[in-house]
Amino acid sequence: MTEASYPVPAAWAKDARIDAAAYDRMYAEAATDPDAFWAKEAQRLDWIVPPTKIKDTSFDEADFRIRWFEDGQLNVAANCVDRHADTRPDATAILWEGDDPADSRTISYAELRDEVSRLANALKARGVAKGDRVTIYLPMIPEAAFAMLACARIGAIHSVVFGGFSPDSLCNRIHDCDSRVVITADEGLRGGKTIPLKANVDAALDQGDLGVETVIVVRRTGGDIAMTEGRDCWYHECVANQSTDCAPEPMNAEDPLFILYTSGSTGQPKGVLHTTGGYLVWASMTHEYVFDYRAGDVFWCAADVGWVTGHTYTLYGALANGATTVMFEGVPNYPDHSRFWQIVDKYQVSTLYTAPTALRALMREGDDWVTRTSRKSLRLLGSVGEPINPEAWNWYHNVVGEGRCPIVDTWWQTETGGHMISPLPGATALKPGSATKPLFGVVPELVDADGKVLDGAVEGNLVIADSWPGQMRTVWNDHARFFQTYFSTYPGKYFTGDGCRRDADGYYWITGRVDDVINVSGHRMGTAEVESALVAHSKVAEAAVVGMPHDVKGQGIYAYVMLNANAEPSEELRKELVQWVRREIGPIATPDVLQFARGLPKTRSGKIMRRILRKIAENQLDGLGDTSTLADPTVVDALITGREKAT
Ligand code: WTA
């Protein structure tokens, strides 16, 4: 292998919590005696009833089950808040940085406990009980953390919906998990622009009888909004008279903690369900080992809490470990392109965790925005969400980290709960673009299309052969879909949907999705979702959506659209359809290219050959392969000609 390799820096090797030998030893321990390994790791949490049964799992259809720590009892909020508030009440839990650099707030663990308890009592007063679902549609403000933790405290199941999703998407998610309570804000604020969150909630609730009884509204901007008598109440009024005492609900380790909707290759987004004990052990362990978390570190995960990265690392993992976590409301380029590095200096951030798409966007603005700041506090950098291209890796390493900070390129998924394949900074030599090696308890395998396990240096489909504590437990309301989606393609194994290469050193290189999911700016988007939004338009007969390479976003959205006989292609209609998708799903689903097509490449049995559409979108016209089996081979030439007009 000729890839560049960066050995563990001397300072890190000397002071490593887990060095290369310890990594090997712990990996072997987790493999040979998982019960002993995980019983020990579980001790990182405070249990009301410590578990005696540790691992009880099988991916086989006949006795399919995933249970971890199943006789243990604990409460997530007690672990993330109370136990630190008891011992270090004045330690900072959350450093909140507003969209406007003049806006910030410091919240100690004692204050966090009070805020969470008051909201928890307010929810109870509104009739929310253990097992009830609460939808959270908030910007990156402290109340988002309070809301998630308040749910955890009383055993309610939160479903956070990213503030960039449309009323339609929000409506579907509220409906699917049957939430009776929604927590939102008047407006969000990002890059100086407002986002009409409350108006979106109103529009979502207007779409049908969703059974939402309570909408709690945080006053963020003071913007003009409508309040529905009897249903809506201001957050500050709801919590005003509530007590700061609220006993944490004892939860079984396998009781649900949250639902988070994510896109798959077919159908509507799935409600990924995570439970209490295994998830928190995994969040805490990976946060500690992968980020080499040490007391006093200021940890900044720049992901929105609307995504799993924000759940597991901005919030649960960081707070379980008693860290100071930075919550940033804004965007990397506002007021200017130095914002990230100004925040690093302002709060003396030790670890920054962000996505390659943000790095690529900042990289093109030039080094000066970075080098004019100090960044001396940084000791570790992290990457997540998509493969990081070596150019962005090198820039992150050399310019941002001045060659001093290791980069942990963490591969994982909403479904996995936390990191799966990642370097440990004191143990793993780095190769730019590789997520390197599996964490403890993670058994990756590469298989071919028939499920045959491939050995050695090879490329294949990435599966995980055994259960790990942080794994999702089901798809909300659809256990059959859970099994079908993840365990039926390669029986007995969890299928990730990713392609991957393993090199001669046993390092893993994720090559991207092998299903119909595309990764836009580190966000998952199902091509089927965009297609169904398009065909919902009265002028559209058929649509096919594929990913295309994009310099900043990683992948962009390329849509082929066939119109109904009564409609004519026009620039105006093209714009209208692009806007339509934005409105139906949200801005993150905006097609980058929309090409009108008079026909799509289909086999004689009517199946769309996406491979061909992908190649055309990529402009790889010599890679089209055999098109003679198409029902109408001439559509390909028409698509190639049409591409020039569209791009
Ligand atoms: C991709 C985000 C390469 C992958 C935590 C996965 C990555 C999907 C990496 C999950 C990485 C995530 N290198 N690809 N370090 N991290 N991915 O559910 O395709 O939003 O399947 O979870 O992102 O996206 P999700």
TrEMBL record:
It comes from the Bacteria. Acetylated. Deacetylation by the SIR2-homolog deacetylase activates the enzyme. GO terms for cellular component: cytosol. GO terms for molecular function: acetate-CoA ligase activity; AMP binding; ATP binding; metal ion binding. Mg(2+) binds at residues 535, 537, 540. Residues 23-80 form the Acetyl-coenzyme A synthetase N-terminal domain. Keywords: Acetylation, ATP-binding, Ligase, Magnesium, Metal-binding, Nucleotide-binding. Residues 529-607 form the AMP-binding enzyme C-terminal domain. It catalyses: acetate + ATP + CoA = acetyl-CoA + AMP + diphosphate. InterPro entries: Ac_CoA_lig, ACAS_N, AMP-bd_C, AMP-bd_C_sf, AMP-binding_CS, AMP-dep_synth/lig_dom, ANL_N_sf. GO terms for biological process: acetyl-CoA biosynthetic process from acetate. The modification N6-acetyllysine is found at residue 607. ATP binds at residues 385-387, 409-414, 498, 513, 524. CoA binds at residues 190-193, 309, 333, 521, 582. Pfam families: ACAS_N, AMP-binding, AMP-binding_C. Its EC number is 6.2.1.1. Its cofactor is Mg(2+). Residues 82-467 form the AMP-dependent synthetase/ligase domain. Belongs to the ATP-dependent AMP-binding enzyme family. PANTHER family: ACETYL-COENZYME A SYNTHETASE (PTHR24095), ACETYL-COENZYME A SYNTHETASE 1 (PTHR24095:SF14). Catalyzes the conversion of acetate into acetyl-CoA (AcCoA), an essential intermediate at the junction of anabolic and catabolic pathways. AcsA undergoes a two-step reaction. In the first half reaction, AcsA combines acetate with ATP to form acetyl-adenylate (AcAMP) intermediate. In the second half reaction, it can then transfer the acetyl group from AcAMP to the sulfhydryl group of CoA, forming the product AcCoA. This is Acetyl-coenzyme A synthetase. It comes from Sphingomonas aerolata. The gene is acsA.
